[in-house]
Amino acid sequence: MDTASEFGRLIGPLRRAVLRTRLAEHLPDLPEAQIELLRALEIVGTATPSELAAHLRVAPSTISNLVRTMTAANLVRRTPSTTDLRTVQLGLSPKSRDMLRRYDRTSTAALRRAIDRLTTKERAALDRGMPALRALLTALEDESGVQRAGAHNSSVE
Fold this sequence. Notes:
By secondary structure, this protein is mainly alpha-helical. It has six helices and three strands; from the N terminus they run H-H-E-H-H-E-E-H-H. The chain has helices spanning 3-19, 32-44, 49-56, 60-72, 94-116, 120-144; strands at residues 46-47, 76-80, 88-92. The protein has a three-stranded antiparallel beta sheet with strand order 1-3-2. It starts with a helix and ends in a 13-residue tail after the last helix.
């Protein structure tokens, strides 16, 4: 099997294994689209719905539906614009900030435990591979036209 095929088959199960770590903290099982929206707000701070749609490369109606659900769950704060009463600024709620912090702490600890079980040679190979993984992300985003914002960006579609 070539590298692209093998990597493609591993990336989904790897991501799901990391996401399952949230169960240890009794964190909610949010849909990926909601997680991506929260991560985008974590990067940009506050944004209008149209700015978030552009950032995540999704339709404005997708953002509207996500924000409606996430506001009801107290995950997103809506603040009226001080300059344009037709517009709102969206930001993380204290609940979602805490949730992201707990998820990051839990998933990082699980990854550290798993990495510690690797051989010295495997850990060194993983360390050496990090720059290649970053370059792969950039290449995939360039190919799909995604513009990176900060250290993280992906599609919600």
